[in-house]
Specification:
The radius of gyration is 37 Å and the shape is elongated. The chain has three domains: 95 residues, RNA Polymerase Alpha Subunit, Chain A, domain 2; 89 residues, RNA Polymerase Alpha Subunit, Chain A, domain 2 (Beta Complex); 85 residues, RNA Polymerase Alpha Subunit, Chain A, domain 2 (Beta Complex). A hairpin with a 6-residue loop joins strand 19 and strand 20. The protein is built from five helices and 22 strands. The longest helix is centred in the N-terminal third of the chain and has 29 residues. A seven-stranded mixed sheet has the order 17-22-20-19-16-18-21. Strands 2, 5, 7, 10, 11 and 14 form a six-stranded mixed sheet that branches. It is an alpha+beta fold. Helices cover 17% and strands 47% of the residues.
């Protein structure tokens, strides 16, 4: 009997402690708190329009509600879609859009006290496009005894889209300056465009290349009897000339191992697939990036195709 009474007393103590903790947690989590939440904005523009002035990209909601939901709401990613086709039914170019607090989905008990900014100032402009030439720019200097030949951009012009006021003033589009010191013995490098305004976009402008030739002004190494390799699908072809001589400019550090230089130099004759009879084929020299060509002799050969 005494044991039963003692257990009953302990059970009541545990129950009281549990209720006290539960009530404390409940009161703590139901306490009203205020916090800020930043929400990103996504705009849907009319097809023929662009922004004349960049609008706000986010708004801040000042929210009050139970502490229990604060972390859930503050950490989730929310985005408001602003459809300017609906907001601007009259097709005005300068107007305001009102941010409705009810657009943000909140748990029960949470309310929006304020939105900053509450009204968005929108300025639109007609979209236009123009084909403009690209302007080639350089930075730095070439290494000594090297000359840059026949630099050209491919494509040489691009189509640019943007607000009509910007497009009408656009005469050319520069590329980011090409570092001359970084050019190697290749024949092309990728270049980037410089858009003067973030509202401008380019079609096909992500694949612009600078084609060029680097030629040595003096020679410090000559190879004779370099064999000509033929690039062709034709099996029956012949030429009286089977080798050439090339004059090169080679870095001093590589001159110590002349046999390696010889093994890396290739001369190719690219014979057109549809060619027949007796034709003249120009020769192309393939070199490592640090070695540069001054002269090849002969520059072309006569090929007989059967």
């Amino acid at each position: 009997m005494k044991m039963r009474n003692r257990m009953k007393k302990h059970s009541l103590k545990f129950l009281s402690a549990f209720l006290a903790i539960f009530l404390w947690v409940y009161v703590l989590n139901s306490e009203k708190v205020k916090f800020e939440k930043t929400v990103s904005l996504e705009y849907i523009l009319p097809v023929d329009m662009m922004f004349a002035q960049k609008p706000p990209q986010e708004v801040i909601f000042l929210i009050e509600g139970p502490r229990a939901f604060v972390r859930t709401v503050s950490e989730r990613e929310d985005r408001l879609v602003i459809d300017l086709n609906r907001a601007n039914a009259r097709r005005a170019l300068d107007f305001t859009v009102d941010i409705n607090p009810a657009q943000l989905n909140l748990p029960f008990g949470m309310v929006v006290e304020r939105v900053i900014p509450r009204k968005l100032q929108i300025r639109l402009e007609k979209k236009a496009s123009k084909i403009v030439p690209l302007k080639l720019l350089f930075a730095g200097q070439l290494p000594d005894r090297l000359a840059l030949l026949h630099p050209e951009l491919e494509p040489s012009e691009v189509e640019v889209y943007g607000p009509r006021s910007l497009i009408s003033k656009l005469k050319e589009l520069p590329v980011k300056p090409v570092d001359l010191e970084g050019l190697q013995g290749l024949d092309q490098v990728a270049v980037e465009l410089q858009l003067p305004d973030e509202r401008l976009t380019v079609t096909g402008g992500s694949d612009v290349k600078l084609r060029y030739q680097l030629k040595a002004s003096t020679s410090n190494f000559t190879l004779t009897e370099v064999p000509i390799r033929f690039l062709s699908e034709k099996r029956k072809l012949s030429s009286n000339v089977r080798s050439v001589a090339v004059k090169l400019m080679v870095p001093e550090r590589l001159l110590k191992n002349r046999s390696n230089i010889s093994s890396t130099v290739q001369v190719w004759a690219d014979v057109p697939d549809q060619a027949k009879g007796r034709i003249t084929v120009p020769l192309k020299v393939i070199l490592p990036p640090t070695i540069h060509l001054l002269e090849i002799s002969p520059k072309s050969i006569i090929v007989n195709i059967q």
